[in-house]
Each structure stands twice: as structure tokens, then as C-alpha cells.
């Protein structure tokens, strides 16, 4: 397993209230800054970012000085299911897991959030669980001494009656039920998850079921959520579902397999974000013999992944805000580690490392409406320290030296604006 880093430091010790970090190279969330730079951190906020090595002077003032090769914002996994164990790859084991008592599922979720943080993933967006375990982990992660990645939680998603998604979503069918379900979730979910389509039929190489909701229902969904001040992210693959998602104006499309260049253009024009999630399909392709897929299906899976990669590049070039998400918890997709596999797939799709790291740091924070999307002065110090620059050695990402996450909930990040 990768990212066997020292445990992340919940910086609540008195000596951790003020310190400095000196690095040779860094990434601010959008651009690489290839220069020796000194960061001064006070009470969890970036107090100063200065060119050059000011370590000796600051140490002389009694400040603790840390050094490393590279600093970047904490990684964000924009699509996970904390209560699911992605390392479980046997269907029987996975089915039994869903029937375990809540305490067992909570412990799984805690372990996954802890593992994520150890890998440098300081924030995850949980895309739904029917028990609301994501909300409970969100609350635990807000404690100052927590060693869990912070959680942006959808709570329980919404699906059509008797359709796909029972493990992560509750049913709503009529317009009144939809309005009520959205109003309930708007009260305590950070974003609202809509299950708009079913799964991909790998043997058919297509989404064969009709979308779960009509365009009129999807519009009602988006309008009601927006009126409640919440954004929608929609599980959606296949041409029909994508057409409805775009026309209805959802805020973010999850998965989005069977994308087309036209849809990429529409997403860019309508400022709809996209979380492509290669992980679960890639696992099926890479483990096809063990999973019993015939050669014909393997070819379809490969084509699906290649087309997905081609559209990812088209979308980024068109200006779509891509959020890196893994669907961790799905079969074969391990929390934390999967982020690095997804990063590699973005690289294979032809994205630059700056574009990839933006998708894994500033793009999601901007989409979530955080006041600080980048590592900048007066931003919360939400950062990962690496021994080497990933621009020289990409594998350095898998071995964080130190991880810092803000100690307060995201909505309170403006508290840095007043500190110095
Ligand atoms: Zn998912």
C-alpha cells in the first residue's frame, strides 16, 4: 500500500500555533511556483508567503522551522462513499457489509477518513449513504484534535422509487415528494445528490435503463434546491441522462460516461462541473479475468475508458471545471490511495500536472464555494508537504511528509481573514 506516511499532525499542541515552512518548489492550487519560498503559519492560517529562505531569521526569533521539497494545498477527493470499504472486492463480502450494524459501518467510515488524511486528502465530498453516516463523520472530523479528513456531506441521496441506488439514496417519486426530500436535505446536507440514471451495463457497453427522472422533474429538483441555497450533483451516465442533466442545469455531473464533445461544450457554456471517476470502471477492466468478464466485454470496458479519457481532455480544454473524484468505496477503489491512481489516469488522458492538481485542489474548493480555493495569504493552512516536487517525480505525491488540515468547518474559514 502507498502513502504509509507518519500520522498527520493535528496541530493543536501549543508549539504548533506558530511555525514556518521552507520549500524549494510549490503549487498554489493553479500554478507551479518554482522558487524557494517561506510560509509563516499562525493559528492555522497563512500569515505570510515570502520569496527566499527566511528560515534562519525566523528560527532566531524562536519559531519552529520545517523544511521540505514541495508544498501544495491538501488534496480533495470530490466523490467518495465513506461507509463502504473499497478494498473489499468479493461481491458476497460487499453485500454482507451493507447489512452490518451501524457501529461497524461507522468504524469503516472513520478508518477511511483517517486513511484519506494520511494520504494528504484533507477534504472529501461524500456522495451519499442511506444511513447518514457521512454526516456523523463530518461532525467528528470537525473536532480540533481529529485525524480524519474533513467531510462535505450529501447525507442521503434521492432516487426514483424502485430504481438503482438503494445503498446511498431514498425514494421520491411525485413532485411533492421531491420538494419535501430536497427541503429536508437542504437543512443539513452541504450539497444534494440526485441519482439521475442507473449503472452502466458493462456487457452491453451502454446505459440500458431509462433515466430515473424526466426533464421536468430534474428541473423541479434543481429549482427547489437552488431556492434552498443548495447545489445539485447528479449521478449520471449515458446520452439521455446527460441531456436531461444539462437541460435541467444541475451543478455537477458525476461519472458522466458516454460523454460527447457537444456535451463538453454545453457544460463549459453553462458552468456545469464534472467529476469523471475512472476508478470503478478501471478496476473492472484491470481485473476482468478474475471477475469473469468475456473478451468482448473487456474490449468494451477499454473503449469506455479511452473515450472517457478523450472527453476529459476535451472538457478541460473547453474550460469545464473538472473535480477529481474516485468513487472510493466502490469495488476495488480504496479511500486515499485511489486519488493517486486517478491522478495517473488524468495524466494518461493528456492533462498537464498543473491541470490535474488544480482538479484535485482549487477546482473543487471553488465549486464548493470556499472563500479560499488556493494556498494564499490569509487562507487556512490546508496543505501537504512532500520530500520532492511531483513535477520532477510524480510518485512523491504518494509519500506525504506532513499533512495539515484546518481545524474548523469550511463555512468558518473566513476566520483567517482577521488573524495575522
Ligand atoms: Zn458514487
Give an account of the 3D structure.
The protein is of the alpha/beta class and 420 residues long. The protein has two domains: 14-74 and 374-418, Urease, subunit C, domain 1 (Roll); 75-360, TIM Barrel. It is 35% helix and 19% strand. The strands form four sheets. Strands 1, 2, 3, 4, 5, 15 and 16 form a seven-stranded mixed sheet that branches. Strands 11-12-13-14 form a four-stranded parallel sheet. A hairpin with a 2-residue loop joins strand 3 (37-42) and strand 4 (45-51). Helix 8 runs parallel beside helix 11 (295-318) and helix 9 (279-286) runs antiparallel to helix 11 (295-318). The protein is globular, with a radius of gyration of 21 Å. The two termini are 39 Å apart. 53% of the residues are buried. The mean pLDDT is 94. The structure holds zinc ion. The site of zinc ion (ZN) has 4 residues, from loops.
Main attributes of the structure:
globular, four-stranded parallel β-sheet, binds zinc ion, seven-stranded mixed β-sheet, Urease, subunit C, domain 1, alpha/beta, 420 residues, TIM Barrel
A few lines on this structure:
With 420 residues, the chain is an alpha/beta fold. The protein is 35% helix and 19% strand.
Largest sheet: 7 strands, mixed
Give the SSE order as H and E letters.
EEEEHEEHHEHEEEHEHEHEHEHHHHHHEE
CATH topology call of the largest domain: TIM Barrel
- CATH superfamily of the largest domain, by name, is Metal-dependent hydrolases
Looking at the overall shape, the CATH architecture of the largest domain is Alpha-Beta Barrel
Number of strands: 16
Supply the CATH class of the largest domain: Alpha Beta
The helix-and-strand class reads: alpha/beta
Tally the helices.
14
What portion of residues belong to β-strands? 15-25%
The geometry reads as: globular
What would you report as the Rg, rounded to the nearest angstrom? 21 Å
Enumerate the spans where pLDDT stays under 50 for 5 or more consecutive residues.
Answer: none
Number of domain units: 2
Helix content: 25-40%
From the N-terminal CA to the C-terminal CA, the straight-line distance is 39 Å
